Amino acid sequence: MNQLVDSLWHEVRNRLERLPVWLPGTPMELGDVGVLDDGGWSKSTTLDALGIGYAVDAGGTPVDYDCSSYDGAQVHVRLAAPLDPVLTGVVGGNIGMRVDFSRQGAFVLRAKAVAVRRITNVDALDEQILSRYEKKIWRREWIVVTEVAEGGPSVMLVSGGTSSGAVVDLGVAVAGVDVVGADCRLGTASGLAASFIGAQRMTLLWRGRCVHSRWWSRRRWLDDRQTPSEDGIDPGGTDLSGTDPGGTDPGGTDPGGDGTGGEFPEIVDIEYPEDLPPAATS
């Protein structure tokens, strides 16, 4: 995963305990199954299409989101004057938002009435996924979306450099429009890595799960990299036991292989980019 997406992912995860939809504006629904790479989310199938049953909660109470990076993003919101030189592109009398970024990967997210929905029976879901994985029906690069935060209207801006920025017309000055209004639009922008401004409700943040194996997951090496493994394998990359889990197999035995024998697969929450399945990393 490239540096910009990696930085954004960590920042949003640490601020909101969920993951950003990439690219912003990409459709993402509960029960979707797909892959995630530098190009963003790509849906492959759904739990329903795979015949996997699941339950969904009723959803939480909607709340407004007004969030930005801890540093690297200066946000100013005020009523725009006619031909306002600071809020270029904002209609006079509307609420304008000016954002000045000072580093790559900094973000601003504003959204109305965001509600969280999640799959509730994750243990039963995990069992069904593992059963299909062992039968080679579930691909190891697949991710299942188990939680979504949906809201709108919404604005998402992501900095592409050290001197990027944008001006957004948040809409007519009525109660609550200081977050974002239905008639919001982009006034001006420069140096953004990504932006999304929309009036419709959509998925803004998500959480998901995937198959994790001790033999091929990056997560295992990162978790164990400071401590020699008890099974004789050096997390730093040196094969101490004669068996190479990376796939070169100098010892003549590849525990990962092309099947699932010896993998000890499990289902884990995706928290950071290093948790992504191998085919979804670069």
Automatic annotation (TrEMBL):
Chain intervals with Gly residues compositional bias: 244-262
Region of interest (Disordered), ranges: 225-282
Protein name in UniProt: Uncharacterized protein
Originating species: Rugosimonospora acidiphila
Source species taxonomy: Bacteria, Bacillati, Actinomycetota, Actinomycetes, Micromonosporales
